[in-house]
C-alpha cells in the first residue's frame, strides 16, 4: 500500500494537539511540505550526516547504481522524512512512500516491491512498526533483490521467487533500538540525527520566514529558536504562531517583544517547556516532594493519560535534566525546583551525595 505523504498521519498515533509536541498532524504536513529543504545543500545543520550522505549518493551516481540502503534514526521533527525525499531528489529517482504500520502483512510489502522499478527509492517511515513476516521478506529483498511470494495455504502452498529490480530502501525510525539486528545490519548507511543547536534553528527560522513571507528581526528569531527544543518542526510551528500574533496584535513584524509576548500567551516558556511539562514538574515537586513517584500516579495528578505524560512530556524533561527515571519512580532534579522558582529542599532526592537513586 503506497500512501501519500499527507495521509501518513493517519497511520500514526495522534497526540494531543500541543504546540511543542514534535510529531506533525494532518494539516501541518501540508505546510511542512512547503518548508522542506529540497536538496542536501539546503539542509541546515546535521553537517556530519549531510557530508556522509552526500558521499554515498555521489559514489552511487558515479557508478550508475542505486545507492546503498539508508536508515535514518532520531527523534520526531529532526528531518528524517525531509532527508528521504532529498535522497530521491538527488538521485532523480521516483520516491515511493509507505510506513511500518501500513504494512500489516507480508503481502502488503510484496505488492509494493513487485511494483518497483530500477533505481526507485522506497521510503518506509516508522519502519520498526512493520509486521514481523514482512520484516523477514524485507531482509531478503534488501540483500538479494528477490522475494518469495507464497501462493495458497497449507500443504498445497507454493513459494514463487520474484526478482525485484535494484532499489534503495530508506527506513526512518524514532526507535532504532526496536529494529531487529538482521534488519539493521542490512542498511549500508545509518544516519543518527541529533537535536539542533540554537544557531542552526535560527537559520531554519529565517529560512522559513523567507518562504512564508514573514518579516522577522534577528532577536525575534533567536527568541523562537531558544524555545524550540532543538527541533526544526517545533521551530517552524512556533514561528507560525508568533506570526499570527504579530499580524493580529502588532504590525506584522516579529520583534523580540512580539515573540516573547506570543510565546508567553501560548504558554511556551523560556526553555521551551509547555503547560503539560510544567504541570508534571509542579505535581512532582509540590505534591510529591520531588518523588520518587510512579508514572501512573503522576499522570493522574496532572489529569492526563499515562502515555501522554510518558511519551510527550517525559523525554524532553529527562533530556534537559529536569526529571530522572529511577527504579523507584520519577524524581525531580534540583534544576526542576529551580525552574519552578522553588527552593531546593535539603532532603530532596538527587541532592543526596551518595546518588543511590541512580542505581539500576
Ligand atoms: N535540517 C533541516 N533544515 C531545515 N529545515 C528542516 C531540517 N530538518 C527538518 N526541517 C523542517 O522540519 C520539518 C520536519 O521535518 P521532517 O523531515 O518531517 O522530520 P521527521 O520526519 O524526522 O519527523 C520539515 O517541514 C522541515 O521543514
Ligand atoms: Mg517524518
TrEMBL record:
| Ligand binding (DNA) | 306, 325, 330
Q: Please name the gene that encodes this protein.
A: ruvB
Q: What is this protein called?
A: Holliday junction branch migration complex subunit RuvB
Task: Relate the assembly described in the record.
Answer: Homohexamer. Forms an RuvA(8)-RuvB(12)-Holliday junction (HJ) complex. HJ DNA is sandwiched between 2 RuvA tetramers; dsDNA enters through RuvA and exits via RuvB. An RuvB hexamer assembles on each DNA strand where it exits the tetramer. Each RuvB hexamer is contacted by two RuvA subunits (via domain III) on 2 adjacent RuvB subunits; this complex drives branch migration. In the full resolvosome a probable DNA-RuvA(4)-RuvB(12)-RuvC(2) complex forms which resolves the HJ.
Q: Which family does it belong to?
A: Belongs to the RuvB family.
Q: Where in the cell is it found?
A: Cytoplasm
Organism, by scientific name, is Nocardioides hankookensis
Q: What does this protein do?
A: The RuvA-RuvB-RuvC complex processes Holliday junction (HJ) DNA during genetic recombination and DNA repair, while the RuvA-RuvB complex plays an important role in the rescue of blocked DNA replication forks via replication fork reversal (RFR). RuvA specifically binds to HJ cruciform DNA, conferring on it an open structure. The RuvB hexamer acts as an ATP-dependent pump, pulling dsDNA into and through the RuvAB complex. RuvB forms 2 homohexamers on either side of HJ DNA bound by 1 or 2 RuvA tetramers; 4 subunits per hexamer contact DNA at a time.
NCBIfam families linked: PRK00080.1, ruvB
Residues of the region (Small ATPAse domain (RuvB-S)) are 197-267
